Amino acid sequence: MRSKILVVEDFADWRELLTGLLQREGHDVKAVDSLQAARDYLARTKDLDLAILDIRLVEPDEDNQDGMRLLDEIHRHQALTRVIMVTGHGTMETQRKAFREFQAFDFFRKEQFDSDEFRQAVREAVESAHRDRQSRKGADYIRDHRYKMWQRDQDD
């Protein structure tokens, strides 16, 4: 299943590694290195299946959680997009926050990129996004069809 995936990672080595892994799996991958580049891409992209976000996008800043902010924005504005959070320095507190507050699909340490578990999570996230998108399209079609029938009844 070909899917659209956004990778947001500030370190070029990690970004290239992850992009290569995902492309070998057959995904259409856009990789960016900053919060603003991600926002720009999201503003012009529809039907994004998965975003893989680094929690901290400016490494020297220990308090930086731009990835968490972006997770919140995606959750609010592109609800059908699944998000997997990644980190090199993750804590259980951060992981719980990603799941509880922002409904991340999954959470991984960067060292797990080349694991079967990570690839399975990507497949499940993409399949979940596709299912929900198809379901929404079906519901929209039914709603539109019912409205047209109602309009015909009103005209009679």
Summed up, the domain count is 1
Which architecture would the CATH scheme give at its second level?
Answer: 3-Layer(aba) Sandwich
User: What's the CATH topology name?
Assistant: Rossmann fold
Morphology call: elongated
- Count the strands? 5
Poorly predicted residue ranges:
none
Strand-residue proportion: 15-25%
- Integer-rounded radius of gyration: 18 Å
Helical content stands at: 40-55%
User: In the CATH hierarchy, what is the class?
Assistant: Alpha Beta
CATH-assigned homologous superfamily = Response regulator
Strand order in space, largest sheet: 2-1-3-4-5
Number of helices: 5
For the largest beta-sheet, the strand count, sense and barrel status come to:
5 strands, parallel
Q: Would you tell me the overall average pLDDT? A: 80
| Head-to-tail CA distance between termini | 46 Å
General description of the model:
This protein is of the alpha/beta class and 156 residues long. It has a single domain, classed as Response regulator (Rossmann fold, 3-Layer(aba) Sandwich), CATH 3.40.50.2300. Helix content is 53%, strand content 16%. The protein has five helices and five strands; from the N terminus they run E-H-E-H-E-H-E-H-E-H. The protein has helices spanning 12-24, 35-43, 66-77, 92-100, 116-155; strands at residues 4-8, 28-32, 50-54, 82-87, 106-109. Helix 3 (66-77) links the parallel strand 3 and strand 4. Helix 2 (35-43) packs parallel to helix 3. The longest helix is centred in the last third of the chain and has 40 residues, at 116-155. The protein is elongated, with a radius of gyration of 18 Å.
